[in-house]
Structures are given as C-alpha cells and as structure tokens.
Design brief:
Blueprint: H1 5-10, E1 18-26, H2 40-48, H3 52-73, E2 83-84, E3 90-91, E4 96-103, E5 106-113, E6 117-123, H4 129-135, H5 138-146, H6 148-170, E7 181-183, E8 193-196, H7 202-205, E9 207-214, E10 217-223, E11 230-234
Parallel strand pairs: 1-11
Antiparallel strand pairs: 1-5, 2-3, 4-5, 6-10, 7-8, 9-10
Helix pairs in contact: 2-3, 5-6
The structure holds coenzyme A (COA).
Length: 235
C-alpha cells in the first residue's frame, strides 16, 4: 500500500521531499487481474488491437493502472475518470499525478502528488546507429559517438529514455522537435536536461532520474520538482 503524507513524515522524510512511487509488472503473466474495471472506451481500444497478445497487454496494463491508482485516490478502480491533455497525456482530477510506460511485456507506472512527471521504460534491444542520427540532437550524437562501440547501447538508451521522459512529463509527445533539446547520456554525467529550446526555463524546473528496473530494462523519470529533492520508492 502507498504511504500517506503523515506516514512519510513519521518515517523521517522531510515535508519538502517529492516521493515518487514506482510500480513495475509483467503484462503477460498478470492473468488474474480484474478486467471488468475497464471503461467502455478502454474495452473498445483493446478490441482494436489485431493480435490477442496486444489486446491482452493493453487490457492488463490499463486494468492494473486503475487498480493501483484507486489506492491513491480512494475511488473504486472502475470509477476513475481520466482526462486527456492536448497530446493525449492521461491525468486525474485532484493532486495525484502519474505516468505509465510499457515496453514489450513490461509495464511501469510512476505515481506522485502535486508534481507533473513523465516515465519511460525500454527493453535493451539491438539498435541501428542511424536511429541516433534521426532522433538525437547534434550535441547528443557527438557525445554518443565519443563513447565508441562498447558504450553505444548504454548511451543510446540513457539518451532515449531521458528524452522520452522529458516529453512525457510535459505531455508533448512528438509535437516537439527532438533536436530542440539536449540531455546527458555519458556514464559519468548525472541525468540532466541541458537545453530545452521551446521553453528554456524548463531546464531549471525539471529533474531527470535514471532507473535500472532490471538487467534488461532501463528507464528514466522526469519530474517538475522545481529543485525539491526527489525520492524514488520501488513498490
Ligand atoms: C505517448 C507517447 C508520448 C509515448 O508513446 P510510447 O513510446 O508508446 O511510450 P510509452 O509506452 O512510454 O507510454 C505510453 C503511455 O503514456 C501515456 N501517454 C499517452 N500520451 C501521452 C503524452 N502525450 N504525454 C505523456 N504520456 C502520455 C499513456 O498512459 C500511454 O499508455 P497507453 O498507450 O496504454 O494509453 C508518444 O506519443 C510519443 O510521442 N512518443 C515519442 C516516441 C519517440 O520517437 N521517441 C524518441 C525519443 S528520443
């Protein structure tokens, strides 16, 4: 169960910490989840996936999201109503903020209060170098090239997950040029947003956090923490 604000203070956290709960689950093995909590729209969306595997993953992901968020809001899972930003970012009324990410059979959810967040999760997989040419900024490509072949995969996924987390925290998706901002990607540089041309003030208000979910699963969280300390808590 997530801890309440009062419980956090008792456990020694300061009132200024932003606690972000991290939930991770396997979409293919969570078969006993109650799917009756899905809304009509979610059931319709599940039905639009051609392959049963993807139908099931979407349904399990969304139902698990509802069951977890219900613990934070006190509402029944089926009663949660999502509203959507201009580029499709789901949100709840009230102070509970969350973001979901999935990669193959894995899903992760970050939940906090009063702080807009973005989460990205990726399975390590072979990538062609030209993906970096297409998606990364000139600065990022230079840093990645300097890592050489041995550091390419780690550097690539650090960069990819951080960029995606930034976009997701802002709720922008692909409405923003991917070369209009830079993130760190070398092993020795702390996760950071270095430049964000569409809104330069974002560099000071947003923090980035690296997450090793599992040996094969890497992730990043971006949080509009405005310089408050952020604590990631695995659930
Ligand atoms: C939704 C988006 C932001 C991410 O999609 P994705 O890559 O499939 O990522 P994830 O699995 O991490 O996230 C999907 C979830 O994010 C949430 N989401 C949807 N739109 C969102 C938005 N605009 N902002 C934040 N979160 C969003 C939803 O909960 C969604 O789950 P659902 O598909 O079950 O509804 C996509 O619109 C996008 O623009 N992706 C950019 C892809 C890319 O080229 N990245 C390059 C990085 S270098």
């Amino acid at each position: 169960m997530p801890v309440s604000c009062q419980q956090q203070e008792r456990q020694g956290d300061t009132a200024l910490d932003i606690n972000i709960d991290l939930w991770v689950w396997d979409l293919d093995t969570r078969q006993n989840i109650d799917l009756s909590v899905l809304s009509k729209e979610e059931q319709q969306r599940a039905g639009r996936f051609v392959q049963p595997l993807h139908q099931n993953r979407y349904g399990v992901g969304r139902a698990t999201l509802r069951h977890i968020l219900a613990q934070y809001t006190g509402s029944a899972a089926a009663d949660l109503t999502f509203r959507y930003g201009a580029n499709g970012k789901p949100a709840l009324a009230g102070d509970v903020c969350f973001n979901l990410s999935h990669s193959e059979q894995s899903a992760a959810l970050a939940v906090t209060r009063g702080c807009e967040i973005g989460l990205d999760l990726e399975h390590y997989r072979p990538v062609e170098p030209d993906l970096a040419e297409r998606f990364f900024s000139p600065c990022e490509r230079k840093e990645l090239a300097a890592l050489g072949p041995a550091g390419f995969a780690d550097g690539f996924f650090r960069c990819w997950t951080r960029k995606e987390a930034v976009l997701k925290a802002r709720g922008e998706g692909l409405s923003v040029e991917l070369n209009s901002f830079d993130v760190t990607l070398t092993p020795d540089a702390p996760p950071r947003l270095l430049r964000y041309a569409p809104d330069p003030a974002c560099v000071d208000s947003l923090t980035l956090h690296h997450i090793d979910f599992a040996p094969e699963l890497v992730g990043a969280i971006a949080a509009f923490s405005h310089a408050q300390p952020v604590k990631l808590i695995r659930r």
